[in-house]
Amino acid sequence: MNSFFAQMLHASGGRPPIGTWLVSASHVIAEAVGCAGFDWAVIDMERGEVKDVLRLLQALAATQTLPVVRVPSHDAVLVKRVLDAGGATVLLAHVASADAARRAVAATRLGCASLQGDAAMTRASRYGTAPNGAARNPLAVIVEIASLQAIEQLDALAQVDGVDAFFLGVSDLAASLGHAGRADHPAVVEQLTRAVQRCKALGKPIGVAAPSAPCAAQYRAAGFDFIAVASDLGLMMSGAHSVMAALRTTGDARVHALAPWHANGNAPTAYPLKGSDDCAQ
């Protein structure tokens, strides 16, 4: 297993490392997320190109946040480009059988020349400057399971050489069970619990994504080994909505309609704050 991913899990001391989802494709936001203290972050390629992945990997490299690249396709050429960009921990989507898992892992092995120190002029080999030993950091492969079929195949999936961990796609699982949008439905919760217990027995770490901190706390109590909370844009919009909810009452228009200019063309009078620490910097 990739040493960085394994070290992150080991260093957590039994408390699941907390990550988030990067969907904005912004290297500035990615770096900010890293500076915020997240343990890991998923770079979701379903919403970005390889060039975006490279920039996001570079941004996270300036922080202590471990990047995990979610590759939507198991195409070996695409995976190789991710590995060459320096993505050493990959999350492979849409895996529901042992055969699919073997094909997915094979794609990472076919494209891992740069991680083995054989390819020059790639970010993974530090553009040809890394000694062979330094470049041989084993790849970590996380397999996403998102259906009842995949959960029922967990034992077989765990036996596939190269599968290091699992990630449970709750939304897709709920939809596959006929309860779209209901991650809290008893049937969905039953399968979540089943997946966690089975992975514990198999000795394989399992992660999950939670929409909020309270939900993440519930998943932590359920035994998940690593947890992603919301996304970069989700967190930003949540903060924006909170600010607007605190400052705007029902029926208010936008600021330009709320603060009209006086008839003489001067701005409205500003009244000083009195005895409040709320605006202290």
Tell me the Rg in angstroms: 23 Å
Q: What structural category do the secondary elements indicate?
A: alpha/beta
How many helical elements?
A: 13
Approximately what portion of the residues adopt beta-strand conformation? 5-15%
| End-to-end CA span | 45 Å
Biggest β-sheet: count, sense, barrel? 8 strands, parallel, barrel
**Helix/strand order:** HEHEHEHEHHEHHEHHEHEHH
Strand order of the largest sheet: 1-2-3-4-5-6-7-8
The count of strands amounts to: 8
Estimate the global geometry from the Cα principal axes: globular
- Low-confidence stretches are 113-117
Instruction: Specify the helix fraction band.
Output: 40-55%
Mean pLDDT: 85
Short description:
This protein is of the alpha/beta class and 281 residues long. The chain is 43% helix and 15% strand. It has an eight-stranded parallel β-barrel, surrounded by eight helices.
Notes on the protein architecture:
The protein is built from 13 helices and eight strands. It is of the alpha/beta class. The chain has an eight-stranded parallel barrel, surrounded by eight helices. α2 (27-36) runs parallel beside α3 (50-61) and α4 (76-84) packs across α5. The longest helix has 17 residues, at 186-202. The protein is globular and about 70 Å long. The two termini are 45 Å apart. The model is unreliable at 113-117 (pLDDT under 50).
Features:
281 residues; 15% strand; 8 strands; globular; alpha/beta
